[in-house]
Automatic annotation (TrEMBL):
UniProt protein name: Nitrate reductase, large subunit
GO cellular component term of the entry, any: membrane
Entry EC number(s): 1.7.99.4
Gene Ontology MF annotations: 4 iron, 4 sulfur cluster binding; metal ion binding; molybdopterin cofactor binding; oxidoreductase activity
Species classification: Bacteria, Pseudomonadati, Pseudomonadota, Gammaproteobacteria, Oceanospirillales
A single BP term in Gene Ontology: nitrate assimilation
One Pfam family in the UniProt entry: Molydop_binding
Domain 4Fe-4S Mo/W bis-MGD-type positions: 24-73
Record organism: Alcanivorax borkumensis (strain ATCC 700651 / DSM 11573 / NCIMB 13689 / SK2)
Cofactor(s) the record lists: [4Fe-4S] cluster; Mo-bis(molybdopterin guanine dinucleotide)
Length: 894
């Protein structure tokens, strides 16, 4: 049986099995996951938080602290491939350059496109943008930041005249009021959450307000949770503006001196009235809660409003961002210690991509394509022959242009659009029909890779080298510490090689990433000429050695940690702009699709799971795709808790498990965005999401999809452990088991199906084996099989029944990892002879502590998170499970 406390690998995490090289002394690098941008110190076999990094001061969350477990050669893309054949780099690069050149020559530059990602490094991003906009001559380069940050970019540009985040993390610690809206900080930005939690512990009078239609783990920190109806953020913040005016809480001197457009913005806000009771009803909250929030905002000069995807990913995401910024401008709370609006970034280099101009409607260094002076300056700096003159296609439009044949070649780098774009099935069809699809990725299998004509193996985290910028504009280095597997190469190198082969060798002469960074830094001088704050000119002459030694620094370089604190903005008038935000039209929920489907992140998975999906430990928290619904809806739609639900929308369908969640608003459901066709039969949430876009940013409304739900009752259920592909059944979901057979890594599949099964089928699901064990129990309708090699080692295990066969999946996983000594009857039973009680799901991933153990600790008197930690270690490493521990404390003690 797996020890309840798995000692030894915490804080000192194990490296992946095929780690090629360890460093002699620890190096400092930056976490590959979220935009908090934590520093990591590692020698290749163990890691810890970098105590000197300003973002995390030594802390790491569960994803960061388990990152070494996701490295290794298994399922890596090792060689360039053209139409399925392994080729040399020369052949692959010639092929890409040749095809792009030919299409540009025949159909013009707008017939090709790049689709890139906030997981590229700044240097990769810079050369991709320079090649497409400056040399190929089209602005058809867009990025997954379109799905993530583009509404915040619009909001910043409209309000401040530049895409600048004015505040910094320290503001969260200095604030008297922290508002977290559309942000599940506890799970998506855990170290930011921990910094707020620590500040609140030190100053309990500090208030936290969470605005989110569902009750999330983040709410455990909240003094007030406003569970607004989905999409009601503009009315909420318009109401706030009106309230501030009614209660003389505006900073009129600041408004007069530093802003414009206030009167018309206030008029628009006022048009919804100030009958707080009916407004509260409209928003779906109580009047007391609404006015408490307004009181607190009025009272606290030091207020930070953190916003993320619940704000950005909406039909009116840009306005939602501006409605927040309006309230901050109206109270003079921008860029001051403890007082700012704060859009936090998702990906490790979402911010870096915005700096270099990775979006189709940016030029570079915060300049605009359609501004002739900006255009002339960049064309001159780059000596670019064909600098694009018009904005290019934004992500959703870009893939529609691929579908219509207007775009004939697309190069996708470091993103997985077949899973992450709305109407994802159509994206897949478009790519399958496209002339040339090039995909640069690290892994060998993926839903987008399956559509590629040319696959290029890229370096991944731990191998690649370059710069990333986090949410607070802090630039840190990612440094390599393992040898690249196979033929994998840096993205910047691949792009530069293609540029050279397309005839642009003079403009892409780089030998080392630091040369690219220095050029980009020099280019920011132009930003300064046009009154922008982006300033890296101090790094323009950086030597290779200085680049190697780079310590985390915020831009503008050699400036304070905040921007705009003096009330002078990046607009021509130096005044910030209020933006009048109309309330969204009232949404009529039709009978056909009565539930509003929300989607987002879970604690231990990253996006499309190409990395976190390699570590079995990260599935302990939530192991299957699910839709969370309120118990009333489970009853109303005759679903079953733990059963299966088929979701259908106007554009697609999905089949997942039902989770009961009293924190859901009735009439809504939540699905994680993570499961792809690599991990489940049909659980891609974006197959359901229609392409409804914010008109200013082009960002899709991922959070509010009308769906229908119906119960699905399979005729049989099962478990299958195998290294082979999953069987073709109606439902399967897989979890990697930390064991490798010759055929590959063992996977644990949860199965369910409708069709009759024959003995032969069951047999075919298992691999060739020297020995077989079988047990058929017609009384229970259960069939169990085990396949063993000649030495008695387990190769595969299967149990099928009309009800889900009982077994201890963790013990079975251990049977695979620990090899021999298998007792035949026990193995068929799927649990040890001396099976202990079921301890429930793992809550603390670091120490593998299960729910019942934690509840036991509470029953024995542990009355706070720290006491639970002392009893059973839960929550004492990365702290990511602390919100859940607080939840258990609450349920056990009430
Ligand atoms: N564990 C983990 N962490 C991650 C990532 C990951 O994949 N896994 N990805 C990273 C990336 S790229 C990003 S962009 C960030 C995203 O970080 P977050 O934005 O915090 O994450 P989400 O879960 O997408 O959505 C946040 C919340 O918005 C709420 N919401 C939905 N509709 C509304 C609404 O109408 N109004 C309001 N106010 N709220 C609403 C949802 O209920 C959800 O709780 O996370 C980053 N961190
Ligand atoms: N329904 C719904 N959809 C969403 C969202 C949502 O909340 N709901 N959120 C949206 C948001 S905010 C985001 S950011 C996107 C994320 O969605 P994606 O960007 O599609 O997700 P990832 O899994 O991060 O894809 C990264 C890919 O790049 C590969 N990769 C990793 N590192 C490198 C590298 O260094 N070089 C190269 N070449 N490849 C690399 C990985 O193996 C993986 O295949 O999803 C969006 N889609
Ligand atoms: S909060 Fe976690 S995932 Fe985000 S950067 Fe820090 S360690 Fe990485
Ligand atoms: Mo994101």
């Amino acid at each position: 049986m797996k020890a309840e406390v798995a000692a030894g690998n915490v804080g000192e995490n194990r490296a992946g099995k095929h780690m090629a090289k360890n460093t002699e002394r620890p190096i400092c690098t930056t976490c590959p996951y979220c935009g908090v941008g934590c520093g990591i110190s590692t020698d290749g076999t163990s890691l810890k938080g970098d105590t000197l990094h300003p973002a995390n001061a030594g802390r790491l969350c569960v994803k960061g602290s388990s990152v070494l477990e996701t490295l290794g050669d298994q399922d890596r893309l090792l060689n360039p491939e053209v139409e399925g054949d392994v080729v040399s780099w020369d052949q692959a690069l010639d092929e890409v350059a040749g095809r792009f050149r030919r299409i540009v020559d025949e159909h013009g530059p707008d017939a090709v496109a790049f689709y890139v990602s906030g997981q590229l490094l700044t240097e990769d991003y810079y050369v991709a943008n320079k090649l497409m906009k400056g040399y190929i001559g089209s602005a058809n380069i867009d990025t997954n930041s379109r799905l993530c940050m583009s509404s915040a970019v619009v909001a910043h540009k409209r309000a401040f005249g530049e895409d600048v985040v004015p505040g910094c993390y320290e503001d969260l610690e200095l604030a008297d009021l922290v508002i977290l809206t559309g942000s599940n900080t506890a799970w998506a930005h855990p170290i930011v959450y921990q910094r707020i939690a620590a500040a609140k512990q030190a100053r309990p009078e500090m208030k936290v307000v969470v605005i989110d239609p569902r009750r999330t783990a983040t709410c455990d920190l909240a003094d007030l949770h406003l569970a607004i109806r989905p999409g009601q953020d503009v009315p909420l913040f318009n109401g706030l503006l009106t309230w501030l005016d009614d209660n003389n809480a505006l900073d009129q001197a600041y408004i007069d001196a530093h802003t414009e457009g206030f009167e018309s913005t206030l008029d628009t806000a006022r048009s919804q009235g100030n009958d707080w009771a009916s407004l509260a009803t409209h928003m779906g909250v109580s009047k007391v809660d609404l006015t408490t929030f307004y009181h607190w905002f009025a009272a606290c000069d030091r207020t930070v409003t953190v916003f993320s995807q619940g704000v950005n990913q909406a039909r009116n995401g840009s306005d939602q961002g501006n409605a927040i910024i309006n309230a901050h401008l109206a109270t003079g709370r921008v860029g001051k210690p403890g007082a700012s609006p704060f859009s936090i970034t998702g990906q490790p280099n979402a911010m870096g991509g915005r700096e270099v101009g990775g979006l189709a409607n940016q030029l570079a260094v915060h300049l605009d394509i359609d501004n002739p002076a900006h255009h002339a300056a960049v064309a001159d700096f780059w000596q670019a022959p064909a600098l694009a003159k018009e904005n290019g296609l934004t992500a959703v439009d870009l893939f529609q242009a691929v579908a219509s044949g207007k775009v004939k070649a697309v190069w996708i780098m470091a993103t997985n659009p077949v899973d992450s774009l709305p109407e994802a099935d159509k994206v897949r069809q478009a790519l399958m029909a496209c002339d040339t699809v090039v995909v640069s990725d690290c892994v060998a299998s993926g839903d987008t890779l399956a559509c590629a004509d040319i696959r290029l193996p890229a370096l991944g985290w731990g191998e690649k080298s370059g710069m990333v910028t986090n949410s607070e504009r802090c630039m840190s280095r990612q440094r390599p510490f393992v040898t690249a597997p196979g033929q994998a190469r840096a993205d910047w190198w691949i792009i530069t090689q293609v540029a050279q082969r397309m005839g642009f060798a003079d403009a892409f002469p780089y030998q080392h990433e630091h040369e690219i960074f220095a050029e980009f830094s020099a280019l920011t001088a132009l930003a300064g000429q046009f009154g922008k704050r982006l300033d890296l000119t101090a790094a323009a002459d950086l030597t290779a050695d200085q680049y190697a030694q780079w310590q985390p620094q915020q831009w503008p370089l050699n400036s304070g940690p905040r921007c705009y604190g003096d009330g002078r903005f990046s607009t021509a008038s130096e005044r910030a702009r209020f933006i009048a935000c109309e309330n969204p039209p009232v949404r009529v929920i039709g009978d056909a699709f009565p539930i509003i489907l929300n989607s987002g992140r879970i604690r231990d998975q990253w996006h499309t799971m190409t990395r976190t999906g390699r570590a079995g430990r990260l599935f302990a928290h939530l192991s299957e795709p699910f839709a969370a619904l309120h118990p009333k809806d489970i009853e109303r739609y005759r679903l079953q808790e733990g059963g299966f639900v088929r979701l259908t929308s106007r554009v697609g369908d999905a089949l997942v498990r039902v989770t009961r969640d009293t924190g859901q608003r009735p009439g809504t459901a939540f699905m994680p965005m993570h499961w792809t066709d690599q991990f489940s039969r049909r659980a891609r949430v974006d197959a359901l999401v229609p392409a409804r876009l914010d008109p200013h940013s082009g960002q899709p409304a991922f959070k509010h999809t009308p769906v229908n739900v119906s119960d699905w009752q399979p005729r049989w259920h099962g478990w299958l452990f195998t290294a082979a592909s999953p069987p073709a059944v109606e439902y399967w979901a897989r979890v990697p088991v930390d064991a490798f057979l010759q055929a590959g890594q063992v996977q644990r599949y949860r199965l369910a199906g409708d069709a009759d099964l024959t003995e032969q089928q069951l047999h075919d699901w298992l691999p060739q084996a020297a020995q077989w064990l079988a047990l058929n129990d017609p009384a229970t309708g259960h069939y169990r099989r085990a396949a063993l090699d000649k030495d008695g080692r387990l190769l595969a295990w299967l149990a099928i029944g009309e009800t889900l066969p009982l077994c201890d999946v963790d013990w079975l996983a251990d049977c695979f990892t620990q090899g021999a000594d298998i007792q035949h009857m026990t193995i068929l039973a799927g649990q040890p002879a001396d099976a202990g009680p079921d301890l429930g799901p793992v809550i603390c991933s670091c120490f593998q502590v299960r729910q019942k153990t934690i509840e036991g600790a509470v029953e024995e008197g542990a009355d706070c998170v720290e006491a639970i930690g002392q009893c059973c270690q839960a929550g004492t490493n990365c702290g990511s499970c602390i919100p859940e521990l607080r939840g258990l404390l609450e349920t056990c003690t009430t």
